[in-house]
Amino acid sequence: MPQSILNSVKKVVGLAPDDPSFDLDILLHINSVFATLNQLGIGRDEGFLIEDDGPTWEVFLGEDPRYNFVKSYVYLRVRLLFDPPGTSFVIQSYQEQIKELEFRMSVLREGEKWIDPTIPVV
Predict the structure, then answer these.
(1) Which helix (H) or strand (E) holds 104?
(2) pLDDT tens track of the chain, all 122 residues?
(3) What's the pTM value of the predicted model, to 2 decimals?
């Protein structure tokens, strides 16, 4: 069953999917993370934006299961922006996980869409 991006992120940050109280905040952070993913070369070339609970992970990620870790990345980034942990040890742990996931996404992207940096872009 397709998962709503908004509702799944709300659930992992501790909000009920049917509670719209913080939807604007969560949407703002999710879209910021999508912009970062776009700069990392993940997702559609033209970018991706959600405005409600309609879009699903399948719409953003497609059918390729190798990109499932993107969900964890979005959660970690949104969690740090929306409700940061109270201790520096947990924040540092999240930040290290984020760096590792960014590295893994870059490796995966480079394997699929490598662009030769010595060829000038016209």
Answers:
(1) helix 88-113
(2) 679 999 999 999 999 999 999 999 999 999 999 999 998 889 888 999 999 999 999 999 888 888 899 999 999 999 999 999 999 999 999 999 999 999 999 888 887 776 666 777 66
(3) 0.87
CA 27 centroid distance within chain? 12
Please check whether residue 74 is in contact with residue 9, taking contact to mean a CB–CB distance below 8 angstroms: yes
Domain ranges of the chain: 5-112
> 45, exposed or middle or buried, with CB in 10 Å at 0-12, 13-18, 19+?
exposed
Tokens, residue 9: 């992120």
Q: Which residues of 88-99 are buried (b: 16+ CB within 10 A; e: fewer)?
A: eeeeeebeeebe
